[in-house]
Amino acid sequence: MRVVIAGAGLAGLSCAKYLVDKGHIPIVLEARDVLGGKIAAWKDEDGDWYETGLHIFFGAYPNMLQLFKELDIEDRLQWKSHSMIFNQPSEPGTYSRFDFPDIPAPANGVSAILSNNDMLSWNEKILFGLGLVPAMLRGQKYLDKCDTKSWTDWLKEHNIPERVNDEVFIAMSKALNFIGPDEISSTVLLTALNRFLQEKNGSKMAFLDGAPPERLCQPMVDYITARGGEVHLNSPLRQINLNEDSTVKSFTIASLNENEKKEITAEAYVSAMPVDLFKLIIPNQWKGIDAFSKLDGLNGVPVINIHLWFDKKLTDIDHLLFSRSPLLSVYADMSITCKEYEDPNRSMLELVFAPAKDWINRSDQDIVDATMEELKKLFPTHFMGDDKTNLRKYKVVKTPRSVYKAVPGCQEFRPSQKSPIKNFFLAGDYTMQKYLASMEGAVLSGKLCAESINKEYSKIPENVS
Ligand SMILES: Cc1cc2nc3c(=O)[nH]c(=O)nc-3n(C[C@H](O)[C@H](O)[C@H](O)COP(=O)(O)OP(=O)(O)OC[C@H]3O[C@@H](n4cnc5c(N)ncnc54)[C@H](O)[C@@H]3O)c2cc1C
Fold it and tell me: Is residue 192 in contact with ligand 1, taking CB distance under 6 Å?
């Protein structure tokens, strides 16, 4: 059966991968000239990669890890020590670590928290631990119920000192959704904590060994095309054409030359586009349908990814770092953490700049200048004196609407992969699945979408025994 999928991000490619596994023929149409959507990357004039986002894979990503296994590329994940490392603003240039020992969960998480004495006092640790108990014991239903309040409100309600937020959760919240704890839904933090504390390797982190379009998306494309599917770049979906009964008749696709449009037909159709762009092409006849009108409640959050190439090494830490800077979120020295970007003598920092609301329209130079000021606090000895480290070049990638902003109340707006339209389906990290807006969520949404299509079209007609 032919299925046309608009969007070659992780969700669209995952949907196509699981459709070919079931014997279907997916045709993936990607608007841009690069695979990957939010994991897209490009080479600059010197051949150095720059990316849409600094991407971390977690042990708590079962569908992503299964996908790596199925593609036979597991060796491309570079696992780091089981730790979380935070900069200490009160002691510039120093770090505070949560190290998870090699013992079963949740004991390894509890040990990591209890043995860190830099960030939280014993009283704060105890109050936080007690507050978390219901979240750990009451399962997914409780996590979903918490979507009515922000993380800060949840902490207050559970008598957890505000300092716990300042020390740990501003950084975690910015890392998870590029916004602060006053804005983020408590469901997001509780879901992450739940997975990190309940699964032994849940919070263990890996970096991909190179640029995601080549090292992850291309193997997916090779897998799909080797089994009869197709993936086309430069093929934006412009219009969804309907039959009289509001089912999909065809997709109108533009080519590089916008005047050349063509209609593509199939038995089933999928949007694996980001929610903000999908909303713009929803046909008028569908606009009153609850599942589509609710999408107005989902809006992409701005974020900026910065790449700074230096003439010397700034750090030897082979890990993700939580900056705890007001402007920055997480960062890593990619010349150490990522094999393809390796440089033994010079650092390349990739940094996530968030919240980016007030910066997204500023110039790249302004953003880099502000980042450099923050870096002077993180690396106080490197940017002064005769032997100071110099910035060689930079790249700034702005995403004005990235993953949906996970504010309280969003969960109920997230649609199922099976839409109310019989031959139309949705994939994307914003669709309902339990991994929220993440690479794991995108892969799972594509898998669920493929399952839904397969189920719908393999139904035995009722009059056949
Ligand atoms: C800065 C940043 C850092 C991140 N860090 C992490 C991380 O560390 N860990 C993690 O798990 N997740 C992270 N994420 C989130 C993760 O990247 C996303 O959740 C995931 O990649 C989304 O995949 P998707 O397929 O749902 O959407 P997208 O990647 O947005 O894919 C949608 C695709 O549809 C295409 N498209 C749009 N319009 C059309 C059209 N008209 N016709 C055809 N195609 C169209 C787009 O070009 C795109 O390729 C990060 C995101 C960002 C921005």
Answer: no
Place of tokens 């933090």: 189
CATH H-level, domain 2-40+63-72+211-299+406-457: superfamily: FAD/NAD(P)-binding domain (3.50.50.60)
Q: Which of 276, 254, 225, 238 is nearest to 37 (CA)?
A: 276
Confirm or reject CATH 3.90.1200.10 for domain 303-399, answering yes or no.
no
Question: Which atom from ligand 1 is nearest to the alpha carbon of 435?
Answer: 11
Angle, helices 439-457 vs 62-70, to 10°: value is 70
Report pLDDT digits (tens) over 408-455: 999 999 999 999 999 999 999 999 999 999 999 999 999 999 999 999
Atom of ligand 1 nearest to the CA of 13: 25
C-beta 7 within 6 A of ligand 1 = yes
Nearest CA to ligand 1 atom 31: 9
The domain locations on the chain are 2-40+63-72+211-299+406-457, 100-203, 303-399
- For residue 253, give the ligand 1 atom closest to its CA: 42
- Please state the pTM of the whole predicted model: 0.97
Helix (H, G, I), strand (E, B), or coil: what is residue 174? helix
